[in-house]
């Protein structure tokens, strides 16, 4: 897919680089050269441009772009102007970052397709992770259901997926196993990386040090995590 990311601060820059890593074509735009320069080798195209200038924006390949993300995070006025310009130019899908409640009201009125709250979402995700014992990471599927990463409890080491009876006892699905492997980084220092085991079967055996990726209702996940 083809993306345009406007605003290459911490959030926008990371998003642009990550989408590029995943194999997408990304054009990153920012008015500040010091934000554009570090990303020139990390994303498909990094451009210094004033996106509040409609004539400049029209030079971008808007018809070929699948998603435009307005990731401006500190300039209220610029974010509204840029969002309005891309809306006026009828891009296929327009996503805008919310700076505050007033800003969100305005961009909703402009008619964006989606509003994101990166700081709030990150804080909410961390809060949920911290409140559940042993959780390394979590992903909200809905208000009631989560996917979590958790270190395998000692009681399950050496058992197969079927032998744990996790689905039968707690109505929780083990989606896959993650194993931590040591590799040398570019500085010659050992670091641990995650290796996903792929699709597991009832016969897949759980080993010490594995991480379980589990899906279920939050109350069921909390119940299994509360066990010693």
From TrEMBL:
Kindly list the biological process annotations in GO that this record carries.
potassium ion transport
Q: Name one GO molecular function term.
A: monoatomic cation transmembrane transporter activity
The source's superkingdom equals Bacteria
Q: Where is the RCK C-terminal domain?
A: 149-228
Checking InterPro entries in the record gives: NAD(P)-bd_dom_sf (IPR036291), RCK_C (IPR006037), RCK_C_sf (IPR036721), RCK_N (IPR003148), Trk_Ktr_HKT_K-transport (IPR050721)
Against SUPFAM superfamilies, the record matches this protein to: NAD(P)-binding Rossmann-fold domains, TrkA C-terminal domain-like
In terms of PROSITE patterns, this protein maps to:
RCK_C
Entry protein name: Trk system potassium uptake protein TrkA
Tell me what organism the protein belongs to: Aquiflexum balticum DSM 16537
């Amino acid at each position: 897919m083809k993306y345009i990311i406007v605003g290459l601060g911490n959030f926008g820059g990371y998003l642009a680089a990550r989408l590029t890593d995943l194999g997408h074509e990304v054009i990153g735009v920012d008015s500040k050269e010091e934000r554009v320069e570090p990303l020139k080798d990390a994303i498909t195209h990094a451009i210094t441009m004033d996106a509040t200038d409609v004539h400049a924006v029209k030079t971008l390949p808007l018809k070929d772009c699948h998603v435009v993300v307005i990731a401006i995070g500190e300039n209220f006025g610029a974010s509204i102007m840029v969002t309005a310009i891309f809306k006026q130019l009828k891009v296929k899908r327009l996503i805008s970052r919310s700076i505050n409640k007033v800003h969100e009201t305005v961009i909703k009125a402009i008619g964006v397709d989606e509003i994101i709250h990166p700081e709030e979402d990150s804080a909410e995700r961390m809060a949920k992770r911290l409140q559940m014992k042993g959780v390394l990471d979590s992903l909200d599927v809905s208000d009631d259901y989560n996917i979590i990463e958790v270190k395998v409890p000692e009681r399950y080491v050496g058992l197969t997926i079927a032998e744990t009876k996790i689905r039968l006892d707690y109505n929780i699905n083990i989606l896959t196993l993650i194993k931590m492997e040591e590799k040398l980084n570019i500085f010659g220092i050992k670091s641990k990386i995650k290796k996903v085991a792929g699709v597991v079967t009832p016969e897949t055996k759980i080993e010490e040090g594995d991480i379980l990726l589990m899906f279920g209702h939050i109350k069921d996940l909390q119940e299994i995590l509360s066990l010693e």
